[in-house]
Amino acid sequence: MIYTAILFGSFFGLLAIIFGAFGAHLLKKKLSEEQLQSFETGVKYQMYHAIVLLFLGFKLNSELTIDNYIVYAFIIGVILFSFSIYGLVISSAKNKKMKFLGPITPLGGLFLCLGWALIFYKFSLLYFI
Hints:
This protein is mostly helical and 129 residues long. The chain has one domain. The chain contains 4 helices and no strands.
């Protein structure tokens, strides 16, 4: 699990830089201001959670089930949240909006919240025990 967190964290970080540059330079001329802000939201959340995954990869114990759940929640959350935003923005810019992605974004957000809630739960147990 340690390597999974570091692998996905570094990959998500790499993609966040690429997608951020792509949005800032190539998409800026093709997207509305609102679409560009949505795209940037996807990039920001992806980068935030890439950094969290890297940190977790060095700090968590891969033999603890809750630690594995935390990492998986963040990986699934980033994929569902950020990548659905990218798909929605790019498809709507081409006037072929993939509406099925709309409900996926909040589901990804729930997974991100779950990851944070599990971290809170894990460390609140350690603090109060």
